[in-house]
Amino acid sequence: MRRRFLLILICASVIGFLASFLVYRVVSQAASARNDQSESILVATVDLGLADTVTSQHIKLVSWPKASVPPGALRTPAEAEGRVVRSSVVAGEPLIDGKLAPQLSGRGGIMPMLIPEGQRGVTIRVDEAMRESGFVLPNSRVDVLVSMPKAGTNEKIAKVILQDVSVLASGQTVEMKDNKPVTNTTVTLALTPQQVERLAVAQSEGRLMLVQRNLRDTQFVRTPGATPSSLLSDIAPAPSPEHKPTVLARSAPLPVPVVEKYPVAVIRGTKITEQTFVREPGNSWAEQPGLKQ
């Protein structure tokens, strides 16, 4: 009896060991397969705004599916710490190299880090109306319009000289004028070197104005410019090459409507009459006056 009990105990132990070993193998293979299909990348733990500096408290490493890793994703904290945010990042969003300024250790301040490569940051003054509205904010898209004397004439012309320009920053400066403090609103734009030259000429020769545009609207529109004589003229301006006049085609004459009729024989005693019913709008039938014997 004792030997039988020991034999049963040994068999149960062996079976339990084999079952545990098989479960361990399956779990290990599943974990290994999961690790092969994912990798660690950096994500933001808090919302980061424009010009914020990334620290170790703002980021963490998480496992991310390899197929969904965005291009330029950062994989080590050293790649992100100390860098300045170029575009807002929400909590849980992967940190991408393109959304962070280059690692320059803060040399030259924050503004040089926000200027895209190949462009220049130019600061201009805007009028009081733009200052009061307060709608020109960083990351806005604007057009630049200049009002200046027209060459060879005595009248002025207003024309859009730059389109779809990115706003890097906006702020206010205080200057002394006639022994009184005067507040000036300034806007910093990101421009190419060629656009900087056009803006410099326009700023020295005329008055600048910023015009806001929809963020999704990136279309370049050619305009002839407006002058006092063109405003008072009754002749419509010539259409631009991009907008051809719409030609209305003459439609074919409509067919003559067909009236649907249905005759019905009516027997009243010894008299037989015929009544005509006409289909009206709405699929209803109505009696048509006039009996025919």
Which structural class is indicated by helix and strand composition? alpha+beta
Q: What's the main sheet like?
A: 5 strands, antiparallel
Uncertain segments are none
Mean pLDDT: 78
How are the strands of the largest sheet arranged? 3-6-5-4-7
Domain module tally: 3
Order of helices and strands: HEEHEHEEEHEHEEE
Summed up, the helix count is 5
DSSP helix fraction: 10-25%
Question: Strand tally, please?
Answer: 10
Q: What's the shape?
A: flat
Give the C-alpha Rg.
39 Å
End-to-end CA span: 120 Å
What is the structure about, briefly put?
The protein has 293 residues and is α+β, with helices and mostly antiparallel strands.
Structural summary, described in words:
This protein is α+β, with helices and mostly antiparallel strands and 293 residues long. The protein has three domains: 39-112, Type Iii Antifreeze Protein Isoform Hplc 12; 118-232; 261-292, no CATH class. It has five helices and ten strands, in the order H-E-E-H-E-H-E-E-E-H-E-H-E-E-E. The chain has helices at 2-36, 111-114, 128-133, 193-205, 228-232; strands spanning 38-44, 59-65, 120-126, 141-149, 156-177, 180-191, 207-212, 261-268, 271-280, 284-292. Strands 3-6-5-4-7 form a five-stranded antiparallel β-sheet. It has a three-stranded antiparallel β-sheet with strand order 8-9-10, with no helix packed on it. Strands 1-2 form a two-stranded antiparallel sheet. Strand 8 and strand 9 form a beta hairpin. It is flat. The termini are far apart.
